[in-house]
Amino acid sequence: MDSATAELQALTSSANAGLVMDFDGVLSRITDNPDASELLPGTADILASLATKLSVIALLSGRSASFLAERATIPGVELYGSYGLEQLTDNGIEVVPEAQRWTATVRQATRRLHQEFDSVDGIYVEDKSLAVAVHWRRAPDRDGAARLIAPLIRETVDTYGLRREPGKYVDELRMPLDQDKGTALRRIITTKNVQTVAYAGDDRGDLPAFEAATAAGGYALVIEGPDTAPEVSRVSGAHFAGPEEFQLWLHRLDDAMQ
Each residue of 10-33: pLDDT tens digit? Predict the structure, then answer.
């Protein structure tokens, strides 16, 4: 039995199973323009169906909760943004208390990065509510863009006390909190009393969640692409060749839970 089938069967046989997923690169194709990211056609219907069958189904993304709400408001699907620092609730977006004192600092750093890079071809500064990211996937010379960006990223980290997290042609500056996708996933497991959990991700920011899932006796679902970091490719679990293949697995899971 292959790993993907084994993990599917584990979820279908559990009385209290949870499936938590990243957005970009997992349910959506990676795009040159981060604002253009959207669910693959048909995915919303699959997730809505699974939400009636699994105890927990959630998106846990580095994107803001408002971004997720615009693209993935699906009945029964919980939305956690900014690496779990935000959650969309019936009362709006709730932010963990530790993050609130850093919001002004993130805004200041975001303004500085916009001033430096908004006029540079192929470099895009993304406002992420509780973080800021500098992308250079669209740059004509990616290596040159990375060299251009690096000094100001270091200066911004030193000036504002933020934490640098590298990704696929992106540097993200986050609040220096002991919070990541791993701590967020552990909160979900605990508060929802999840007995069997699987986490799907594709980038370095997902590594803590992979670790949290396996530490809880659960499973890692790794979605790979042409730019997958080596440490992500080495994660033990089921591996999928892109969001389309993962969508097929979601179909299988939904069918198996009829």
Answer: 999 998 999 999 999 999 998 878
